[in-house]
Design brief:
The structure is a homodimer of 340-residue chains. Chain A has 340 residues and is α/β, with parallel strands linked by helices. The first copy, chain A, contains 13 helices and twelve strands. The first copy, chain A, has three domains: 44 residues, no CATH class; 138 residues, Rossmann fold (3-Layer(aba) Sandwich); 132 residues, Rossmann fold, CATH 3.40.50. Chain A starts with 7 loop residues before the first helix and ends in a 9-residue tail after the last strand. At the A-B interface, helix 4, helix 5, strand 2 and helix 11 of A face helix 4, helix 5, strand 2 and helix 11 of B. The structure holds a DNA duplex (30 and 30 nucleotides).
DNA sequence: TTATGTTCCGCAAAGCTTTGCGCAAAGCTT
DNA sequence: AAGCTTTGCGCAAAGCTTTGCGGAACATAA
């Protein structure tokens, strides 16, 4: 049993032919006689030969590797997006290296450096929460290296991206609250430097307007998306002289923090407060009452991001940044329908 | 701006010295004069040189890559274990390639083939649910390639592994039910081909014995760990003439399926039925009532698995399979304490 | 001046694969 | 039989890095 993987050289010396002959025989090159070809192929199969990706990479000057940076690894949202990326990547012969920025700007820069050192062919990135300037992408963009942002994006005129229709769904959702009987609709927002947070905030305002309301400053709380700030924001909202009768929270972390705080105070959902979560079906149906939720097509986001990436890799010519917008879905459950 | 990453050759030709001189200068080899060393290092820094991992891999005959196979990617349990692996791997200059077996035996074999073709240096694996024979690891074991199992393990006399104290925690948990007032303690078990399922089942029996009970066949249901079978098992238990007053479910999927079904039938937790979940804190505290849970040290499992892996890689001599057992923690919350 | 010793650097091979080109032998034509 | 084509294979370079060894240039000693 060979300790090391078998190479063309091994086959060549076993068969007393040259390495080039083996290489050609394996791809049925017409220069090689049928007899030799047969012998080579049969031995290659028997010994389970497969080309050394390192050597191929060196030769072709490509690593067939995509770097992926996400704010965290353990959330369903990101892990299922990664699954989507992985599937398309694998189908096209690519590997992915996954890094987590832990929502930190510094860590994000570090990840990029590391991935570039690993010679990834390009990057698929979801911005960290703390990322507020975008110059660290200069090097990548200038080198015309494939780059795709998803969910939290920036520099859209230069970089392709995949997003969901955040503005629109936030608007729908706000109107849904109104239709469900809510009249004081609060919003726990995220940092306005973050594209998704900004879009959802604007959608919220737009929805309010559609319902004939103007924004009430006291019903809008900005957070940094942490559980503790979200809890605090909820607490403040609930202690208002006239508390909200519905809360639209900007993402899943905030949604669940709000829900916990509402329950902790002994308030009833949706009777006292309607709630919508941005999360997946599993989590939405896990709790009582089941949560109306905005479901993102996470797997598809990943797939689209990978496809966008691959498209960039191909056309060496003129790269036109593209933006793919996927539709989220509002699934109405008990948490947002007030008893009549 | 160079389109391609800078190589030793680029620096060498810019400085009119040989490639070997550049290589040596970068590592402060005494053969190289201080002047040349200084020039080389300064240009290397300026041009942001970093060695090509492909070339290094080819030279050293190592890819610095660990293949990781998990049953699924989107569960907190596995994704946080992967985080742990990733951290230790990165610290030691290793990359990881993650594959999902989707709980399928066939897919697991396929993943192994693919990873071997990618020239991973070894594998860290959690067995798929459907894996019932273990011959597909022969090739890896015979080649003395580093291999570590975690959580769901096999061939322990040949392969190192990381597990939690399943038997013991299952026993404790059963006794905890008894102490909490339960007298008909049911168990929704998993396939007995799976090490963890078997261990927990045995721990359950042992705990019952400690409480002076013998096992009641009707209170034990075997499932394949899917949500649907778990729901069905719960339904059967609840429809017994004398239904259980506590349910110990073998894993998180089953735990939540059981909880949902119990609630669907309008039964109260813990008043009618006590429940313990095997899950993380986030999920345990998300629901009403908060669930007593068995918390696995997931991140540490990943770290330990990676460390075991690295230890194997080093000592080329005699490889002694090691088993690391980590302690799980039983965190008591409302779901298992019956009102007195 | 010659022999010996340093100092400082380059050559080349190895690791694996692909591919343009060259070359020998065999077959064919006239 | 001489010249041409075809067939079938090998050489070598390129992609990047490390490292043993050889060697030129200079310095020192006798």
């Amino acid at each position: 049993m060979t300790k090391h993987p078998v190479s063309l050289k091994d086959i060549a010396s076993a068969l007393q032919v040259s390495i080039s002959t083996v290489s050609r025989a394996l791809k049925n090159h017409p220069d090689i006689s049928p007899e030799v070809t047969a012998k080579v192929q049969s031995l290659a199969r028997e010994w389970n030969y497969s080309p050394n990706p390192l050597a191929m990479g060196l030769l072709r000057q490509q690593t067939k590797t995509i770097g992926v940076i996400v704010p965290d690894l353990v959330t369903y949202f990101y892990s299922s997006i990664i699954s989507g990326i992985e599937q398309v990547a694998k189908e096209n012969g690519y590997y992915i290296i996954i890094s987590s920025s832990n929502e930190s700007y510094e860590k994000e820069k570090e990840c990029i450096e590391n991935l570039l050192m690993s010679r990834v062919e390009g990057l698929i990135i979801c911005l960290a929460r703390d990322t507020v300037d975008y110059n660290h992408f200069d090097k990548i963009i200038n080198n015309e290296m494939p780059l795709v942002f998803f969910d939290r994006i920036c520099r859209t005129s230069e970089v392709s991206s995949v997003v969901t229709d955040n503005r629109e769904i936030a608007r729908e959702l706000t109107i849904h609250f109104y239709d469900g009987g809510a009249r004081r609709i609060a919003h726990i927002a995220g940092p306005q430097t973050l594209s998704i947070a900004k879009d959802r905030y604007e959608g919220y305002l737009s929805g309010l307007a559609d319902c004939g309301f103007s924004a009430d400053e006291s019903l809008i709380k900005f957070t940094n998306l942490t559980e503790s700030e979200a809890t605090e924001a909820t607490r403040q909202l609930l202690s208002l002289p006239k508390p909200p009768d519905a809360i639209f929270s900007v993402n899943d972390t905030v949604s669940f923090a709000a829900m916990k705080e509402i329950k902790r105070q002994g308030l009833r959902i949706p009777d006292d407060i309607s709630l919508v979560a941005i999360t997946d079906e599993f989590h939405a149906t896990l709790v009582d009452p089941q949560l109306t939720n905005v479901m993102h097509p996470t797997y598809e986001i990943g797939q689209e991001a990978a496809r966008l990436f691959l498209r960039q890799g191909k056309q060496g010519e003129k790269m036109v940044p593209m933006q793919v917008v996927l539709k989220s879905q509002l699934v109405v459950r008990a948490s947002s329908v007030k008893p009549t």
